[in-house]
Amino acid sequence: MKKNKIIIFGIIFSIIININSAFGDEVQTLSDKKGYDLYQERVSLFCSEYKINDNSSEMIYLIDNDNQFKNYDNGGIDINKSLSVGKDQYRKNMDDIYGCATNIVYYRSLKLIKEDLITKNPKLNGRLQNKLNYKINEIEKKIIETSNKCKITGEKNNGIIKKSVLKQVTYEYCKYNFYLEYLKEINQNNINLDEETKNNTENAKGINEVVKKVANKKKEIEKEISDTNKAFPVAFKAYSEYENNITVHILLELLREDYILLREAIHKTLNPINQVSYKISNAMRK
Questions:
Q1: Coil, helix or strand at residue 61
Q2: DSSP 8-state assignment for residue 51
Q3: 58 Cβ partners below 8 Å, 6+ apart?
Q4: Distance of CA 111 to the CA centre of its chain
Q5: For the chain, what is the total number of helices (H) and then of strands (E)?
Q6: 197-239 tens-digit pLDDT
Q7: Residue 20 needs a FRET pair 20 to 30 A away by CA distance; which of 68, 169, 204, 261 works?
Q8: Within 10 A of 80 (CB to CB), how many other CB atoms are there?
Q9: What's the predicted TM-score (pTM) here?
């Protein structure tokens, strides 16, 4: 288990290093493309290896990539709004993937316990069957609420789920980083003024204000890139620990139920003995 953890987090570290090296301080490219076309090309070159086919058994959560991260090449961009929309979209994607993955692991653990452990222990079966069915039905309802985008079925074991989750969140992370670079480019283009405008002293104050706003927005975008890079391994580690521990947590609950059964059985056995002992003690006092 420890060896597997080292391998997985080694993969995460290498992913971040590789993507960051692709970015650098300013993303470098040999392509002659610009704007949104360049963003799409970068995603294709650097992110596609992490993309999971929609029909693959590895798929965790279906995301509509056709409606992701808007194209602002034709103008009409509000950097403040665009960055906010991009943040919200990225966070929703990550929440959907991790939320679905936690449900998958929990669901499969419950099914395994129900179909294997409980059926082999009739005493536990009577006590826990309804509880397990309630939890299983609860998760199935959550899946329906996602329009079945959460792929809870398929030949997945816990190890494959973890690998699939890592691939899908990495693809979203990679896309988002390049989109932020695209927004930086669009933001910078907002101050591409012609020489006549730059040399017009009457416009100097207004130009300075524009330059300041653009510089501040660039810092905000760069901060978002930095925050995203820091949050990515933390989020996956939290999920990984959940996946590692959820089955143990359920089994501990079952152990508690077993203990309750044992305690009740001991009570039934010892209670008559205690009553006899009490009667003998009272008789000897008379």
A1: strand
A2: -
A3: 52, 154, 156, 160, 163, 164, 167
A4: 23
A5: 7, 0
A6: 455 555 555 667 777 887 888 899 999 999 999 999 999 999 9
A7: 68
A8: 11
A9: 0.74
